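[SOLVED] Need 3D model of a three-part complex

Original post:
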Amino acid sequence: MGILEVKGVNKRFGGLQALGDVNLSVAENTVHAIIGPNGAGKSTLLNCLVGKLIPDTGSVSFDGKSVLGRTPFEINQMGISRVFQTPEIFGDLTVFENMVIPAFARRDGSFRMHAFESVSNEKDICIKAEQMLVDVNMQDKIHMHAAALSRGDKRRLEMAMCLLQEPRLLLLDEPTAGMARADTNNTIDLLKEIKDSRDITICIIEHDMHVVFSLADRITVLAQGSPLVEDEPHNIRGNPKVREAYLGEAA
Amino acid sequence: MDAILLQILNGLDKGSAYALIALGLTLIFGTLGVVNFAHGALFMLGAFCSVTLSRLLTLSFETIDETKTDFLGNPMKVKTPYVEAWFGPETGAAIIDWAVPLSILFAIPIMISIGFAMERGLIKHFYKRPHADQILVTFGLAIVLQEIIKYFFGANPIPTPAPDVFKGSFDFGVLLGFDPNVIIYPYWRMVYFLFAMIIIGGVFAFLQFTTFGMVVRAGMADRETVGLLGIDIDKRFTMMFGLAAAVAGLAGVMYAPINSPNYHMGMDFLVLSFVVVVVGGMGSLPGAVLAGFLLGILESFASMTWVKSILPGIDQIIIYLVAIIILLTRPRGLMGRKGVMED
Amino acid sequence: MLGLDKKDTTLLLVVIALAMFAPFLLNPFPSGSAMAQFNAGYPDLMQRFVIFGIFAIGFNILFGLTGYLSFGHAAFLGVGSYSAVWMFKLLSMNVVPAILLAMVIAGLFSVLIGFVSLRRSGIYFSILTLAFAQMSFNLAYSVLTPITNGETGLQLTLDDPRVLGQSATDQGGIPVTNFFGIEMRATHTLDVGAWSFDFNAGYYLCAIIMIFAFYISLRIFRSPFGLMLRAVKSNQQRLNYTGLNPKPYTLAAFIISGMYAGLAGGLMASMDPLAGAERMQWTASGEVVLMTILGGAGTLIGPVLGAGFIKYFENIFSKINDNVLHQWFAFLPDGMEDTLVFLVHPFVGKGWHLTLGILFMLVVTFLPGGLVEGGQRLSRLLRRGRKDEDAGPDPEHHPKETPHVAE
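Solution:
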């Protein structure tokens, strides 16, 4: 029984079958990659996991509890964090303030009327935020506006915000898309370190096979909305069905 | 039955005005993505085109008529409008009498130029700014425009009569077999309704059957792609703004005899037209027209005595109430498209 | 001090000083001099400065922090005024229960409107609030006449019960509003040489409440709650995926700002015990939007400055007539004098709204941070100018520091 169980999920958009009978089981404390050609339904699946979309049929459960019908913030409070394909951060706020918000969310839950405390007096929160910025090597940018960061830094900030919540499941949507090789390698190192140092399950959607094979413990290949194969990385490499799915699309 | 018919008729002229203003608002919103709080002011400017033209036409020179004397026994000064002097008394008087319809010709170039100037001078810089900024700056513009009008025309409503031919009312009841004087409807309101239908039909035909309209409709659906096709969409959007301004202006021109123009009539109509747009569905032209008439008619039904006796005050709030219910239950409005302003 | 850091304490002290010494600051010209018409230190106007200051501070908590643009805030002000006048009619002429009731009723009203309106965002939210406010305005004018007294407006009469007070004074007049016996209209005039300064009890009550209201908003801006509100403005999607529910945060902000508006309405009625429906009209809501934006939305001091600015110029500008203009330009040759008077004329006197509209458009277009941003840019420019003179161009590269919240 994995920490994340997806059973028989279907999702249609008008005439398009985006997801057809998807079954997926992600084991705790592993890195599970979901790959597949464009339009295979990877992002739709991810949206079904975090409450942005509701599947037409099927069930999604996290840690034994169903996530269906819950709002994104409730699902997040259950322990699922998501990093977006294009970084979603609080652009108008400073890097430090960006970090403080998830720290409050982790401590106080989805709403608390703390209108008369001062952010700077919440020592434990501030220390935690600063520490995490040191961990991701961004301490020198602590007072910058988040919107002014480089794309790579934005993604790092977003990842740091997610990690600060100590999620049990981290969902990554193409975390290296559009990155230079060096940045990609940095991200791989960062993710490896996260995986080794914490109790965390990572589910990653990725196009870059280099990233996938450096990180994944297990890989699911999605094609045309349905899982094609699920196996260990070394078995996926050279699997004729996978090759066909990709080449078939390319041709 | 007769009462219902009467209320429908009564709702038509107000509904026409709502529909015309909302149509312009939607054109601007749908094509340019701009929320224009100055649109009511354009309506008001149109109404003042009527006022201006009738003032211009009645510009007079004074002559002394020796045959008449005033009550002091002095020779009386007689004012003769220049048009009467130029075209002869009868034609001249007819021209003056028809000032409001003539204002249509006068208003079209004026309103289009105002629209161009507004778009090029101000709105253009706000395409990429948040909607809140657009609302704020056009709200500021609306204040400026109405203050300018107030400066030149004063704060009081200025009666601007319709041509004499259209004075009086038409007895619809007799036509349909009811007793006389049960369903009577002023001629000018009928004219206004027909006029509105022509304008609305014209705008739709223009968008439907011309290449220009096709590009604009494509732009409303997907601005970026049209831009990528190498079509200079910006120029067309400027023209759309001119068109929308003209529609609002014409709605105002013809409304002048129904409601004497005053400088804040734009603001009064603005709130209602936004409500109309929202009810019809942001970005939907048929929705704007439909909602305009629907709300106009609903409003006149709500002001029936027996309705008011059951629900006191309903006539004052019906439109807002409908808007709130629609916004909460059908966020896209009656005919709104998916993905327009959904956040 | 009071849980504020040094910079905020200074800011608060500045506001306190401005409010306390306003009777001096606003009357810089000797009475009777030609410039005396620019004095704004009379009780009526000073009261309006601070009351609208409170209104704008409250509006800023909603718009400045969350970015939700409400076009219906005047409804809360109106409701506050009506509640306060009813308190004067039924209970007593003491302003304290009136103000408290005004806040409570406006708060309840904003729970209702906020709960419904906040189900949508962006332009839809603006239109929903607009619709609610217009509805309240229309109802106050028509069916609710028993409560609002319709077009005439709600006034005190000699037959009002006033269970804890008296229906009529011994002289047979309507009693005046007071704060535990201190009459709101009580004014002490201090003459110093050619100058005269008015100290009005009502003004000081409003000023103290305004300082308190400013302090609360300061605390909210610096609190985790305020941070969440700014996060709502910045990126709701991320907030949701960070496990925070934006709804209760925005609703709380809406209610707080509604209560501020109610407080302002209650104070307005306390200074002058009548209430009319026109206070609820959407153009009145537009006015507080103008004040906040002009001063600087999202900044602390901006709304207060904006309110003061608009109310000052509304009063002063509208007093400038052609005679005054002729006096000003008298030193010029006649032809030029007349031309200048002719050119300036549309913008002053009754044309004040024209000036306001133009100013507002300029601010929205070029200075989104309002007067506060203008001041900051100016001071930065001056500082850079001075530095250039002193030491030439600065060889070190200073990364621009971004404050947590602009002042």
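Edit: The two ends of chain C are 17 Å apart (CA to CA).
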